[in-house]
Amino acid sequence: MAKEVKTIGVLTSGGDAPGMNAAIRAVVRTAIHKGLKVKGIMRGYAGLLQEEIVDMDGLSVADIINRGGTILYTARCQEFTTPEGQQKGAEICRKHGIDGIVVIGGDGSFQGAGKLSALGINTIGLPGTIDLDIACTDYTIGFDTAVNTAMEAIDRIRDTSTSHERCSIVEVMGRNAGYIALWCGIANGAEDILLPEKYNGDEQELINRIIDNRKRGKKHHIIVNAEGIGHSASMAKRIEAATGIETRATILGHMQRGGTPTCKDRMYASIMGAKAVDLLAEGKSNRVVAYKGGAFVDFDIQEALAMTKHIPEDEYEISKILVR
Q: Which of 125, 211, 214, 231 has the highest Cβ tally under 10 A?
């Protein structure tokens, strides 16, 4: 028989992402609509182990859908990676009457969710990360906002780069994934896009292209550099020394993780949050809600974690044509 869930907990874990609040709001209000109780767990798994648990109602999530970050706060928790920490977390859930938990975060958060599920706490994961690096889903909460924030910043940098006839290296986030860099590179019309999955480290080739473009009459050269490659400041110094062209590095950093979520992040996060509650109400556990092939679906957590993700080859080939 499916386990009956009467009280749902919700937490956010790992890096914050715009749209997490929309997901929290959807979890709370959908649960209440189904006659379930909801408890907010503050500061992710760390807050769970510290029993930072609060009752939530419809008013708890009023006027948050437009806010970036997460009202539940977030943290990383080394203790929860241990069997002892996981057992303690499950016991605390039972102590507070929590039958099921919605975990909003990335792969590391899902690993913790899988451990809780194995210990008898029904658990559903929602993909919350700006990096778009979760293999089971074509969409992650926060990516759309982050990539639009970066795109707007690069547009502004281009204006100054053109005015001063400079080369500009703009470093975007994404950890070891190049999705933000790829999307911004294409959307901003960058002259070069450096992806950790594809860059061969041939800086001389990059320098030659900058020199060739200047000879052809280009007044600026925008390089979108992924965080997984990094070292933008030292790269700028080497390029300037080799080309004689003034070169500046801008690291956009955590500004990409904050700010008002886009309509897409609010909408998709809301649907995912509601579907997570549906799964728990059906007695499901150890699942991840995903957006795949134009539909909202769910996968077994272990199956999802075992999947691999690669930069789409067709998008990468198109990017190489468009930067010429």
A: 125
Residues 95, 56: contact at Cβ < 8 Å? no
Query: What's the CA gap between 84 and 115, in Å, rounded?
Result: 11
**Measuring CA to CA, how many Å separate 120 from each of 41, 85, 127, 284, 289?**
18, 15, 22, 11, 19
Say how many Å lie between the first and final Cα of the chain, rounded. 60
> Left (φ > 0), alpha (ψ -120 to 50) or beta: where does 2 sit?
beta
Catalytic residues: 131
Nearest Cα neighbor of 74 from 106, 98, 96, 31 is 106
CA distances from 152 to 64, 93, 121, 133 (A): 24, 43, 42, 22
Position 94, amino acid: R
Angle between helices 179-187 and 313-322 (to 10 degrees): 40
Residue 1 has pLDDT above 80, yes or no: no
Length of the chain: 324
Q: What is the pLDDT of residues 185-238, one digit of tens each?
A: 999 999 999 999 999 999 999 999 999 999 999 989 999 999 999 999 999 999
